[in-house]
Each structure stands twice: as C-alpha cells, then as structure tokens.
Write a structure and sequence with these properties.
two-stranded antiparallel sheet
Amino acid sequence: MGQYTEHWAEYRRGSNRRTLQLLAFVLLLPLIALLGYGVSTVIDGGVQLTAALLLVWLIEFTRRALGASKVPCPRCSTVYMRGRSLVDCPKCGLRMLQDDPT
C-alpha cells in the first residue's frame, strides 16, 4: 500500500457520491418544468416563478459541478481543479491518484 492510498480511496468515494448527486440534481429539471407548467395554469405569475426556479437550479448546479471537480492534494493540502490538462498538483507536482511518490 502506498503512502496516499487511503486519501485517494476517500477521494474516489466522495467523487462517486458527488457524481450521483449531480445526476439526481439534473433529474430535478423535468420536475421543475412540470411544476411550472402546473402553476402557470392556476396563477398568472407561473412563468416568472418557473424562471426564478430555473435560475436557482442553474446557480446551484454550477456550484455543485465546480465543487465536484476540486481535488485536495494529500502531500501539500493544495486544493486544485482537475481537468484534461491538469492532473498534477500545481504546487508540489504529485500526480492525481498516485499512491507512492517516487
């Protein structure tokens, strides 16, 4: 077992949990649309209410998606955003999911 095995295992569990939360959050979108349609048939301000709910949904989805891409480095405790081109810690150079630094 490497020096950072437990940290990366916890990161993977958290990453899977955040991915499932994002999927569940995306599934709320049709529910908001149906709610907006139902409310718009009953009251006049239904369209504005739906737009406000969609704006709140968009802001919260963006916040959660950005939070899901953050990676805490176990060596230097730097938090960085992972991506296609950034897989190493920008501060100490530890590769993402690297168990034993060599």
